[in-house]
Amino acid sequence: MMIWAIFAAMTGAAVFALLWPLSRGRAQGFADVADARSLYRSQLKEIDRDLARKLIGEEEAQAARTEAARRLLRAAGDETGPAGETEPSLRRRRASSALMLSVVPLLALLIYGLYGSPGQPDQPLAARLEKAGQQQDFAIVLARMEAHLAANPGDAKGWSLLAPIYLRQGRYDEAAKAFAAAIRSGKPGPELYAGLGEARIMEAGGVVTAAAREALAETVKRDPQNPRARYYLALAKEQDGDGEGAQAALSQLLAEAPADADWAGAVRARLERMQADAGRKAVAALPEAERQQAIKAMVEGLSERLSAGGGTLTEWSRLIRARVVLGDKPAALQAVKTARERLAEDKDALAAIDALADELALKEAVP
Amino acid sequence: MIVEIGHYALALALGVSVIQAVVPFWGVFRQDRTLASVGSSAALVSFALVALSFAALVTSYVRSDFSVGNVVANSHSAQPLIYKFTSVWGNHEGSMLLWVLILTLFGALVALSRRSLPPRLRAGTLAVQGLVAVAFLAFTLLTSNPFQRLAPVPAEGQDLNPILQDLGLAIHPPLLYIGYVGFSITYAFAVAALIDGRIDAMWARAVRPWTLLAWTFLTLGIAMGSYWAYYELGWGGWWFWDPVENASFMPWLAGTALIHSTVVMEKRDALKVWTILLAILTFSLSLLGTFIVRSGVLTSVHSFATDPARGLFILLILIFFVGGSLALFAWRAPLLRQGGLFAPVSRESALVVNNVFLATACATVFVGTLYPLLLEMLTGDKISVGAPFYNATFVPVMVPLLLLLPIGQSLAWKRGDLLGAAQRNAVAFGLAVLAALALLFFTRGGPVLAPLGVGLGVFLVLGAGFDLAERIVTRASGWQAMLSRARGLPRSAWGTALAHAGIGLSIIGIAAQAWSTEAITVLKPGERLTSGRYTIVLEGMSPRTGPNFRAEVARFQLFAGDRELTPVEASKRVYTARAMPTTEAGIRTDGLSQAYVSLGEAQDGVVAVRLYDKPLILLIWIGSLVMALGGGLSLTDRRFRLAAPKRAAPAGAVQPAE
Q1: A44 touching B (Cβ < 8 Å)
Q2: How many domains are contained in chain A?
Q3: pTM beyond 0.80
Q4: Do A230 and A341 reside in the same domain of the chain?
């Protein structure tokens, strides 16, 4: 708020300074002829002075005087009548005051409004460095850590703190280097190796490379139960073409997961995706007639499961789409109806279902 | 908060400039002096606002406020304070702000020079100046905003381009901008006069100090830039006919012509149309320079910006101001009252000849600069126009101009005496020829043109000296009288002589470069290399650490013949933030000459070394300084300070002395 008060004061001062000359005196014309006269008079004086100092001869001085006089006469011929009748000049003054009062603040606010960041405070480096503890901003802490580690590259603890930060920031290359440095300079635990493996996989765009696999192998050597390593090793199996093995590994990981494991959700999602992919592949491999059959069976299965109770918006949407694709409009309408009943609590979900129904041109038969 | 206040002040300045462009014009048209006087207060307010804005940006730089994007991109917390400061204009956005600051500073100066300017002319000029300010403020705010904020805030900046971390570069841009922008004032004067339809000796007298001021600073700026290129870029050249250099050189040539033509206009009330045209062209060439440097049509040390939106914006500004003023010129110029005729042999005719030659020289540089750009745009062929082109076109135009210079300078106004002038310069000419012949004799087998060039330079210096001497000596009897005449001589006469002698000195320095020598080899410690008069012996290499760079320094003993000079150091630096190497040449000044050592690659204890012998090279820049000094001296001439028309003065106005 403070800053807007300052802006207002600045604007006020600027506009006031502009208005100031308008408030003074009556309308005046230009006294150009007088100006010209005095110029030529001073020129004549200069000639006399030069003559007195013998910088020019008498003859030259005379010629110069004649010319200056000639110009003075000509300037007098240019004389313009006195201007500035009171009424129009007053109107002009009012108009220009209005112009100043509107254009200056409006233009400034428009431009500043488009590009300014009035809410952002100054952040000089010294002040940022002085702040302690919680208030310190993250970039400074990071820079300090980096500087510290550049000076003490053997600080394993520092590296093991920095590496996960890089990983989270998406700086995978630096993360991998930091994990490697932590491993090199300390007694590496399984988590460091797992982190190194993850950083290398991310750096490779999700491919479990040989180098990453090495790191994962080191992890499980130290801690056979390490969930991160087991997860990525399962992905490695999938990438090797062993889909079933991967699914089995993930299922086992989930089965052994502690109840409060925060990573379980992500693993389950991945497993479901694998299963869906596998199912789709299996169905796609079937001959035409059998494939239709298989798809129908899958849709029926889904429908049964959903009508038994529960079901998320995604699942309902999938069912409705599937019904439409299979050409079973009444069943689709039925699904929409049930879905609306089941999801009645959730406004957003209802809207989504309605939108989907519109999109698929599903309308209740008009009674 | 300071950053945002600076940003808002800049936006506010735009609004104020709009008022400055509109209201005074209205006053001029309606003969309303009250409205016209708004121009002055608007110019002052807008300068105050832009100064506030500039101060805010400087504060951000000095405090390393990395929440400002511009600071992050061009500064580093480990930079020495002076370079944190100069980083402000070492980049596109910041230098635009400096440009606008100088523009509004000139506006404020015009507003303050109440005594020397007729109010009508001042109002018109300030209005045009306001229009220019609107264009550049809008450009800065809309396309090149130095106050853009960043979130999240990085912990460290990316450092200023290392080759710009140099004291020479710290002062080169401000000097150059004062020159460029100063010509915007003469442009504003010209356009105001065209709109108003009146132009006379008074106009010329009002414009002349501004032209001189701009010209003086432009001269210094170009000289500084040239010296910087000489010692920082490490290949020993001092002028490359680079398009960017030409971009500053063209306004200089046109401005030089303008200075001379305003003299004619002031003294003889003639050459009005031509002077107006020159004033417009000079600033147009400055704008063209801005366009070339900032639009990204070419890449060089200077080209900051490669954003097409910026290029387009500047092109529009260019079209508006150049096209608009030329259209106005075509419409109004025929209405201007022409001044008197003049005799073929007179000072004024000589000045016309000067203008013709300078304009032609400027045209050759223009063609040499723009033809390659156009060709590349149309056909995609890249050609480079370098020294051979200019030696074949620019030099032949300049040589006769310079030969005629001392003669024209000693001609009288109105009716000159060619024979007398020739006689007066015969001694100087004779001495110059002797000097050239002696040099030819002593440097037999060397380049033939160099002694001739030195002779030309000597002629200019002596001609200027003799001209002064003659004005002091003739008609004076005795030494007292001579002294009083010397004191009575207007400062502009001293200025003229100094400026002309300065050109002579520069010419001598340039010509002497034909004798410069260069040697390249690979040296181990203890080995020697000879080039021309100088020999260096490599003592050793050692690493060194600066605040934000690491350097590998080579130390050399230096001998000129048998004489041992102070040892010289050359180094290669690597700036850590950008991991960018630069070369720091080792330069030892020996009289007016210099030994110049620069390092190449270093490997396994050996290092590639270039050694140049640069005879009399300092004269090039000393000459420029003398030229600028001449300009400055003319500027302080009593007439300019005195040009005050005695107005029907409001109370409190101080009447000038005398």
Answers
A1: no
A2: 3
A3: no
A4: no
